[in-house]
Amino acid sequence: MKEILNFISTLILPLIIAVILLSGFFKKVPVYETFIEGAKDGLKISVKIIPYLIAIMAAVSMFRASGAIEALAEILKTPLEALKIPVDTLPLMLTRSLSGGATLGIFSDIVNANGANSYAAKLSAVIVGSSETTFYVLSVYFGAIGIKKFRHAILTGILADIIGIAAAIIICNWLLL
């Protein structure tokens, strides 16, 4: 079964490309020219969202470098332990809404410090999978199409992140402890 899945996964991307090219050929669409136009639009959008990305990266870097995460972890150590939440996961919970790269760096630190089979690593993995990089997504997607007022989207995204993190903690406590 594993060999069949490996064979299918090896062929799927070339098959998708072939289907796109053939459908473009039969519909008489200039495939290469259309591809170049799409690449130009992608480059324009990339340039347009750079200020938003720089702002998010600067905010995350300042947050981590300031020591605010460590100070907050020290303050919340007792309540976190009472809820069976490893203190190591707090920085991950705080940065998840801001940056995927920072979150993955913190996740890597948690796995290296505690081991891949530790409760902290498993909880962190579930948190990463059950929450989103809300500010990054809003800055990239909303910035790409020029939306400047997105306060309701931010509130909704943060609420979804909080619910996702709370659900991850409850489910991991139930299944893993």
| Number of extended strands | 0
Report the mean per-residue pLDDT as an integer.
Answer: 85
- Helices, by number, come to 9
Assembly state: single chain
Helix/strand class: mainly alpha
Which stretches of 5+ consecutive residues score pLDDT under 50? Answer: none
The percentage of residues in β strands lies in under 5%
Determine the N-to-C terminus distance.
33 Å
Order of helices and strands: HHHHHHHHH
CA gyration radius, whole angstroms? 21 Å
- Percentage of helical residues? over 70%
Largest sheet: none
Search tags:
177 residues, extended, single chain, mainly alpha
Q: Please, could you describe this protein's structure?
A:
The chain is mostly helical. The chain contains 9 helices and no strands.
Task: Annotate the secondary structure layout.
Blueprint lengths: L1 H25 L4 H35 L2 H8 L1 H6 L7 H6 L4 H15 L4 H12 L3 H12 L5 H26 L1
Concise overview:
About 80% of the residues lie in helices and about 0% in strands. It is mainly alpha-helical and about 180 residues long. About 20% of the residues are buried.
